[in-house]
User: Fold this.
Amino acid sequence: MSNVYAVGDPTAGNSGTTDSRYASVPPVTARLTRPILLCLTVVCALFLLARYAVLPVLTVRHIVFQSDLELSEDELLAISGLQGTAYWHSLATETIRKRLEAYPLIRKAVVEKVFPDTVRMTVWGRRPVALVLADMGGRSLPVLVDNEGVVFKVCEDAADLDLPVVSGLPATDASLGSRLPGAYAPLFQQLRLLRDKSPSLTRLLSEVRIISHGPQDPQGNYDLLIYLTSSPVPVRAGGTLDESLLRYSLMVLDLLSNQGVLKNIQELDFRSGDVVYRMKEG
Assistant:
């Protein structure tokens, strides 16, 4: 015996009520749904287009280096940190520049993006103006210092030994990339100017010894004791080293040598503007 169930028409209005499951979508909602779906479709399409079509085209494919340093392109690439895939649009040129300039041998770097797939790096190296004996890891080593007073390389080349030695600096640890005390920065600037203006005079400089006025001097003033390759008699001067001082010193030393009295002189003192002879004792 079978049971028969009567199912009423859900749209019938006999009872005056309608099942909510079969309620029609309001017209306003229907009008909004279609544009939203269309926008989502467009956004997804743009994302896929950017991900698989545009971004691969904007991959950095060419890196151009310009440098006056004896570093290979592979070395510069490693220093810059550009490893693996890089995208042109998101490349942080300032970060790369800071990485390059943090390397002791590099004085200045410029990093530029060239649309659509090239990065250009221009690097300028440090140039030595003096040798300094520095305490590095418990050992005293000759290191190269540039005109900014930055220690940037351990001296390994015999050609570097032709530089003047700056001595008398405070005994401090000097790691590569460190900067010597600012009080002595003018001296290294003067050595740079002297080398550029008169390299022949610079080659006559054997040693420049810093003679501090003492820790009680708040200004950090000092004298210079200058040793020339052409004379055993040093020249004492104020904290300024320039071309006119060296030329005047050479003239006076040559005159005293011709007079036969140079062997009795301990040093020449130019600090007052006039030449003062300090004679050897006995």
